[in-house]
Fold this protein.
Amino acid sequence: MDIKYMKTISKVLNSLSSLKIAILLLLLIAIACAAGTLIPQLESDQFYYDNFNKYPFLGIINGNILLLFQFNHVYTSFWFLLLLIWLGFALAVCSFRRQLPILKSALNWIDYKSSRQIAKLSIAQTINTNNYLESLEKIKINLKKKGWNIKETDGRIAARKGVIGRLGPILIHLGMILLMIGATYGSLNGKTVEKFLAPGRSIDLLNNNQEKGLTIELQQFKIERDPQGRAEQYRSIVNVIEPNGTNQSKEISVNYPLRYKGLTLYQADWSLAAITIKIENSPKLQIPIEPIPELGEQVWGTIIPTKKDGKDPILVTVNNELGPVSFYDSDGTLLTKLSTNKEAKVKDTLINIINIIPSSGLLLKHDPGVPVVYTSFAIILIGGSLSIISTKKIWVLHEKEKSMIYIGGLSNRNLSGLSKELPKFISFSET
């Protein structure tokens, strides 16, 4: 009964960790990642109802199905995590049941005592010699010069080279498992904060104990534009302030994020925060502005009164930090446009545009799985490099009565290379 039970378990493990299953799992994971790229993630439920009930994804997946199967957060969905666990299990089983025994076999010295055993090897050759002791010594010396490990028993020689290559597949499997663990841990425990900051403003980050941790303060923000006025690069100078008051100034830009103590700060976007103006003899007024999508993709504005009693308001709009600022009447009539440091009468009210304050779009990501992911990449690269190394073995024995030396070998790859290498050892022994 126990034997049947063990055989059943063995069959199940072989089925779950077969190469076909592993390929299928990789294909499903790739399709899931593609879906996660095409479908917006982590939006509100209403967003998916509004966008996918009318136009289903792939023509069949509406908002209800999408939410039911957690396509709104693919990378943390139960089925995606199940696929990762299954693939990790398959890789672990493959390593323990296949790769480790192969490595163990490669590390064991095999002593062939019969010429028939050598004749059955992938590469085998027989040579005549008048002095077998001298010939064996020459073969042994030449093998050592070429970096082969030698073991001699009663005049029989066993040599091997490249055994470390057998470690490559195990390291690749280990690296892939760590990669999935790190990515999953980061997805489940990572935090992402997107914030628009105007110069002088800051954001406080909480630590794991929900206490005040780092403070990110925007010191300066600049938009670099080409001669046609198109944005080419955004640059922010931020102050990273520790709870103890330590302050470090860092610059970030698009494609050049800041990494600091597990936090990655990206330069993601830009916006406009406020317009500084003077109305008649008033002090400088910093008036916040908001996006107005009804007027265009990049239009910000607000409504300000022109009279002390709040009557006769006008619409103020702007589409970049360089200006100009446009003023519209309540019926949509364009009254005038003003550049910065310019003033004009608008509805009999003197208005002076001091400046336009841009805001930096910062994306803060804390991914605790990043160290594990980077470690996995290193392990995979090392394993891949080792995997290209051929594991080769050679055996040499002699028969005194026939004055014959038998030499043969095998290799897990590049067998033709070993067959070309073998005559170089034999040539030194022929007399």
